Amino acid sequence: MKALKSALSGACVAVLGLAGFVTPLAAQGVERNILTGGPTGTYIQFGRDIAEAAKKCDIDINVRESAGSLENFLGVRQRPQTQFAIVQSDVLEYLKTFAAGDSELARAVAGVRIAFPLYNEEVHILARREIASLEDLAGQRVSIGVADSGTFLTASLVLDLAQVEPSERVTENADESLRQLLAGKIDAFFYVVGAPTKIFQSPQIDEERFHLLPITDPTLQTVYQVTSIPAGTYPFQTDPVDVVAVKAVLMTYEYNPRRNAYHAESCKAVSDVAHVISTQFRDLQQSGHPKWQQVDLTDLPPGWDIGGCVNTGVDPSYELRCDQTAETSTSDAAPATAGSDASRAYRDRICAAIGC
């Protein structure tokens, strides 16, 4: 656990030294960017769904691949013109927990806000058929994801909390992990991702050789949400598999539109996209990734504030070109509310937009 904390703290220190987005930038030409994940995961499909919905309002959003949740969290802090990222909630909780005693982590967490709660991500562990349980990973070669990913953090916590120690913790992405598993170089790999996901649709996964491990450890069931991957979700999977899950959230930064032109334009970008998601939510559920059907926009993770620019965008009176009304500038308006008041205002406005 100490090694994991040290790695995360070091990454935050490096990023904070490069966090140039807080300096004034020219307002003209500010891009809208969302950090997602790998090319076969659910994050990137959600990003593409949001970008497609935004096009209806003449809004361009660049969907960027990444290593996953930790890179995404740090990217919103580091990268100019990156207003959104999809992150696992346990990454946020881990960083926030240790921020109280670590000034560098506290600086990394400062200003982070929730844009929208999304869906539950199931903890997938694909293993050789001979490995029957999570406990059987002890002494095995297990891939836990690349170091900047949410999979890495969740897999590390799962193994530590369950007191399971593999003989080797391999740090590879999901695609490379699957290749190594098929080649017999590793015995199992973790992938935290919303089911169904493309990588496990591969015809190379032989049900006689491989299966998804159940995760039924009582300690883990108190930390994570208990869920199940239904039978037939993947071609090799004939039975339901009991696992645990962590919620994915769309995060942003608390831009202050009164600070400078860059913050004003970035705040407007956040408000615009928030308006798109809240007003086109039912369409996203019908035509987007199947996980949109499991999204509850009112299911906010406790202890995290909604962004003020988000609340501006979900207000029913917010005007955008796709509404065939005049645009409203946020450059002279402070974020709607703060703290828990922001969460209450958000829920009220979301319920007005989609019904609750």
Task: Report what the structure shows.
- There is one protein chain.
- The protein is of the alpha/beta class.
- The protein folds into two domains: 225 residues, D-Maltodextrin-Binding Protein, domain 2 (3-Layer(aba) Sandwich), CATH 3.40.190.10; 127 residues, D-Maltodextrin-Binding Protein, domain 2, CATH 3.40.190.10.
- 37% of the residues lie in helices and 17% in strands.
- It has twelve helices and ten strands.
- Strands 1, 2, 3, 4, 5, 6, 7, 8, 9 and 10 form a ten-stranded mixed beta sheet that branches.
- Strand 5, helix 6 and strand 6 form a beta-alpha-beta unit.
- Helix 1 packs parallel to helix 3 and helix 9 packs across helix 11.
- About 8% of the residues have low confidence.
- This is TRAP transporter solute receptor, TAXI family.
Quickly describe the structure.
The chain has twelve helices and ten strands.
Count the beta strands: 10
> Which radius of gyration do the C-alpha atoms yield?
20 Å
Order of helices and strands: HEHEHEHHEEHEHEEHEEHHHH
> Tell me about the biggest sheet?
10 strands, mixed
